[in-house]
Design goal:
The complex is a heterodimer of chains A (449) and B (496).
Chain A (H helix, E strand, L loop, with lengths): L24 H8 L15 H8 L1 E5 L3 H11 L5 E5 L24 H12 L4 E5 L8 H4 L4 E5 L3 H13 L3 E2 L2 E2 L7 E7 L2 E7 L22 H6 L4 H16 L13 H17 L7 H8 L7 H20 L8 E5 L5 E5 L15 E5 L5 H10 L9 E6 L2 E6 L4 H7 L17 E6 L2 E11 L2
Parallel strand pairs in A: 1-2, 1-4, 2-3, 4-7, 11-15
Antiparallel strand pairs in A: 5-6, 7-8, 8-9, 9-10, 12-13, 12-14, 14-15
Chain B lengths: L5 H7 L1 H16 L2 E5 L3 H11 L5 E5 L6 H6 L7 E2 L3 H7 L9 E5 L3 H13 L4 E7 L2 E7 L3 E3 L18 H8 L8 H5 L3 H11 L7 H10 L13 H13 L7 H7 L2 H4 L7 H15 L18 H32 L17 E3 L4 H5 L6 H7 L7 H17 L9 H19 L8 H10 L5 H20 L8 E5 L4 E5 L2
Parallel strand pairs in B: 1-2, 1-4, 2-3, 4-5
Antiparallel strand pairs in B: 5-6, 6-9, 7-8, 9-10
Helix pairs in contact in B: 3-21, 9-11, 10-11, 14-15, 18-19, 19-20
Classes of the chains: A alpha/beta (449), B alpha/beta (496).
Keywords (chain B): Ubl conjugation pathway
Protein name (chain B): NEDD8-activating enzyme E1 regulatory subunit
Family (chain B): Belongs to the ubiquitin-activating E1 family. ULA1 subfamily.
Chain lengths: 449, 496
């Protein structure tokens, strides 16, 4: 089948707006009829459909492999008020699965093109696109949605969304106000594997409760990369991390652009040279690109399955038609089709959702660097670049902050100072901010002898 | 147009080429799939085949598009042949012989069985799919599907530490752990460490903990007597558990070796069986009862030279073994007057898989129905097996009443008792001593044979991937009945 720029019949928004007979028959079955397995709160009604069509507001995070599928699934399930957030533009390599995009759309914002396609194809559907990062919005934006469904490719982003919804929770006299809960449906895929989960913030396990379920990122040790390569991947990382900054092949201050084929070509050639030095075989262009871009293989089918499962949950929750998934489904179709459905448990002392201030146990002579290391390396915290502040002598003082160069320079000496030297006291509260959470986390410093 | 060069195809398909390679992609692009019925489920399956680049597709669908079709279907059906599959079966059943795979969606039982018979006799894989309310169903019908590249998750390594081949033995001997300098000591591959300590370990009954302790004692000590930081030794200790597994052929591969096709090689024998027989010859004549060496080792702490040298020991042995197998392939083919076209590669020998599905006729016949599977699965009365029985029951209902139960609101209540009669007659006909709860009968009336989009889409993804497995002969298809329950988000696979 040739891929041309001619519009295909399936691309045309050829239907006129407005309803037609039987349009929602497949949905109404579940809204109008009583049944033995429905949710205890379910009441069959001819008005439920109107709620879905006119009132219910859904937010889709991501307009990529999962996002495209989610938008289609939701639009064909009666949802009309949908917002979609995605900060990316379309790449050719998306076209094997992100079916709302065509070759002519390459370079344009995913959110915009996805919204256009759905709105043109599903009469009455109003998808509002946001070509933005999730961090560009605050509580007032997120609060307007009934349900939020994520099709993200980043654990950091997931944790941020998780933290945002937790921050919206309202407690009165220690009791959670259920109307402040926004359900979060989260889907993830990788090759032939995927998972779908349902989170009721404040009630069920959150993303951080089960952080250990996420596989750690592969980062090769520096000594391997610098002097003892064994695999073709080590050769590529050498070129990316050590050779490029040294040789600046495209000029001073020009960083490696993983999407620039010329840059990748340079890395590829140099990686081959490095590999030849050590008699390592297997450096190919495809491998080089895969390492530099941290490419995860992806196909249409897995995304379709996981998005569909997520969309089914959105429908169940919005309509109260059935009891939602409780609460985690894992899928793998490498060998036959395998699923495992279980209830992920809340962690009693979860750093995000338990409301229990986390203790930090350190000796007063421990260096601040050790605290930073703990925050990044601890399996339940896994922070990326924590910024630590404390109240000292009545004033809010930044002890260390990495993300702003000038402040990093100024506070760097603090890393080698002991906690006692910095003036910190036993029982002192430390406020930690990090890209993994929209809210500052409070820790309590507990001195060991 | 040929504007689509190889380079741009590589770009577009990059993410999936990393899973099934260029050769898998080629199979996909040479395939011609037939989709019967372009309902929501059908078009979703097709979309998930078109996106990765299926070569060609033909839609057979005699229905006219209705308002409710447009409500759950993302595509307009415009490529369809306006004849129904029933007419084709009546007038031109050989129409289906041109296809790599036939996918039948939302087929009535009679059509399904007729088509099943035609395709079984023509040896064409048949994938039956249906969405019924919140239930998804797939049935794979293929006589024999062989897989060389099954790509198993988490396969054990093939290190031969219990029976090191000559070259490996010599290489291990070239190391003198006690006489080494500190740097070399800390950068010796753990495979060598375990092998060396195995030589010291004379007992044939390995107590893994004691063995690990022995290795731990080998860690260099500083002047003060504290152990140095030797990560390679820690790796050796960690890997003792799996490294000491005896080298042996899995029962699955053994079964394949003992298959009929492996014994009688003729000029008609498919390549897979010639290769397998050749591997079997190797096992008995050259490998001392073992498969050809796989040739790969995991990454491990070591300096480059030690690692690469060790890796090459395994690689070269694998190539040697592969060429012996290739010679067997050659002579087998010569004996039936054929020429060898494909080269053998050792790395998949331990992962060969064969999938054989029973025919629909066998599943549906009273004599050969899989009573045991059905009865034992029904021990969990709310598992997926009851959904299978309900699907069979609504098919009965359709045969009797020319419609499915509960399509219109007013029918739901009155159809419950009618459907119950169908359930009972089904259980009676097959002598199934099981109990189907009334709740499921009610629920299936409630569904009214609806095809909600999200369930169709789940099925669309699942079915498309199984189709891709059949076409590319990579990864392993299911055998043979798959049920998806969207209420509980659970699935099950049965061999019926």
């Amino acid at each position: 089948m040739a891929d041309t720029d001619e519009p295909m019949v399936v691309d045309g928004g050829s239907r006129d707006g407005g309803e037609w007979d039987g349009r929602w028959n497949h949905i109404n079955t579940f809204l109008e009829r009583p049944g033995p397995f429905t949710h205890p709160d379910f009441e069959p009604s001819t008005e439920s459909l109107q709620f879905l069509l006119d009132t219910c507001k859904i937010l889709v995070i991501g307009a990529g492999g999962l996002g495209c599928e989610l938008l289609k699934d939701l639009a064909l399930s009666g949802f009309r008020h949908i917002h979609v957030v995605d900060m990316d533009t379309i790449d050719v390599s998306n076209l094997n699965r992100q079916f709302l995009f065509r070759l002519k759309d390459v370079g344009r914002p995913k959110a915009d093109i996805a919204a256009d396609f759905i709105n043109g194809r599903i009469p009455g559907c109003n998808v509002v696109p946001h070509f933005k990062k999730i961090q560009d919005f605050d509580e007032s934006f997120y609060r307007q949605f009934h349900i939020i469904v994520c099709g993200l490719d980043s654990i950091i982003a997931r944790r941020w969304m998780n933290g945002m919804l937790l921050s919206l929770l309202v407690y009165e006299d220690g009791v959670l106000d259920p109307s402040s809960i926004i359900p979060l449906i989260d889907g993830g895929t990788e090759g032939f594997k995927g998972n779908a989960r349902v989170i009721f913030p404040g009630m069920t396990a959150c993303i951080d409760c089960t952080l250990e379920l996420y596989p750690p990122q592969i980062n090769f040790p520096m000594c391997t990369i610098a002097s003892m390569p064994r695999l073709p991947e080590h050769c590529v990382e050498y070129v990316r991390m050590l050779l490029w900054p040294k040789e600046k092949p495209f000029g001073d201050g020009v960083g490696l652009d993983a999407d620039d084929p010329e840059h990748i070509q340079w890395v590829y050639q140099k990686s081959q040279e490095r590999a030849a030095e050590f008699s390592i075989t297997g450096v190919t262009y495809r491998l080089t690109q895969g390492v530099v871009k941290r490419i995860i293989p992806a196909v249409a089918s897995t995304n379709a399955v996981i998005a569909a499962a997520c969309a089914t949950e959105v429908f169940k929750i919005a309509s109260s038609a059935y009891i939602p998934l409780n609460n985690y489904m894992v899928f793998n179709d490498v060998d036959g089709l395998y699923t495992y459905t279980f209830e992920a448990e809340r962690k009693e002392n979860c750093s995000s959702c338990s409301q229990v201030p986390q203790d930090l146990h350190f000796s007063p002579s421990a260096k601040l660097q050790e605290v930073v290391d703990y925050l990044t390396e601890n399996a339940s915290l896994q922070m990326k670049s924590p910024a630590i502040t404390a109240t000292l002598e009545g004033k809010n003082k930044t002890l260390y902050l990495q993300t702003v160069a000038s402040i990093e320079q100024r506070t760097r000496p603090n890393l080698s100072k002991s906690l006692k030297e910095l003036g910190l006291l036993d029982g002192q509260e430390l406020a930690v901010a990090d890209v993994t959470t929209p809210q500052t986390l409070l820790f309590k410093l507990s001195f060991t002898s | 147009t040929m504007a689509f060069t190889k380079a741009s195809k590589d770009q577009k398909y990059d993410r999936q080429l990393r899973l099934w390679g260029d050769h898998g992609q080629e199979e996909l692009e040479n395939a011609h799939v037939c989709l019967i019925n372009s309902t929501a489920s059908g078009t979703e399956i097709l979309k998930n085949l078109v996106l990765p680049g299926i070569g060609a597709f033909t839609i057979v669908d005699g229905h006219k598009v209705s308002g409710e079709d447009v409500g759950n279907n993302f595509f307009l059906s415009n490529n369809s042949i306006g004849r129904s599959p029933e007419k084709l079966l009546d007038n031109d059943p050989e129409f289906f012989h041109r296809f790599t795979l036939v996918i039948g969606v939302q087929l009535p039982e009679s059509t399904c069985l007729r088509l099943g018979s035609v395709l079984w006799n023509a040896n064409i894989p048949f994938l039956v799919c249906r969405t019924y309310g919140l239930v998804g169903y797939m049935r794979l019908v293929v006589k024999e599907h062989t897989v060389i590249e099954s790509h198993p998750d988490n396969a054990l390594e093939d290190l031969r530490l219990d029976q090191p081949f000559a070259e490996l033995k010599n290489h291990i001997q070239s190391y003198d752990l006690e006489g080494m300098g500190k740097k070399d000591h800390s950068h010796t591959p753990w495979i060598i460490i375990v092998a060396k300590y195995l030589e010291k370990w004379f007992s044939t009954f390995y107590k893994k903990e004691a063995f690990k302790q022995l290795i731990r004692q080998g860690i260099l000590k500083s002047e003060k007597g504290t152990p140095e930081d030797e990560e390679n030794f820690e790796e050796a200790i960690k890997n003792v558990n799996t490294a000491l597994n005896p080298t042996k052929i899995s029962s699955g591969v053994d079964d394949i070796f003992n298959g009929e096709q492996c014994n009688d090689i003729t000029s008609q024998t498919p390549t897979f069986w010639v290769m397998t027989r050749a591997v079997r010859e190797f096992v008995h004549n050259d490998g001392g009862g073992n498969l050809p060496v796989r040739g790969s080792i995991p990454d491990m702490i070591a300096d480059s030279e030690k690692f690469i040298t060790l890796q090459n020991i395994y690689r070269e042995k694998a190539m040697q073994d592969a060429s012996v197998v290739s010679k067997h392939v050659e002579s087998l083919l010569q004996s039936v007057g054929k020429v060898c076209e494909t080269l053998f590669c050792s790395k998949n020998a331990a992962f060969l898989r064969v999938v054989r599905c029973r025919s629909l006729a066998e599943e549906y016949s009273v004599e050969t129905v899989n009573k045991d599977a059905i009865t034992s699965c029904m021990d969990s009365a709310d598992g997926e097996m009851v959904l299978y029985l309900m699907l069979r029951s609504v098919d009965r209902f359709y045969q009797q009443h020319s419609r499915y139960p509960g399509v219109y609101n007013y029918q739901v209540e009155e159809d419950i008792s009618k459907l119950k009669l169908c359930v009972n007659s089904l259980l009676q006909e097959y002598s199934l001593n099981v109990n189907v709860k009334d709740d499921y009968i009610h629920e299936f009336c409630r569904y009214g044979a609806s095809e909600p989009h999200t369930v169709a889409s789940f099925l669309g993804g699942s079915a498309a991937q199984e189709a891709i497995k059949i076409i590319t002969r990579q990864f392993v298809p299911f055998n043979n009945t798959f049920i998806y329950n969207a209420m509980s988000q659970t699935t099950a696979t049965f061999q019926l």
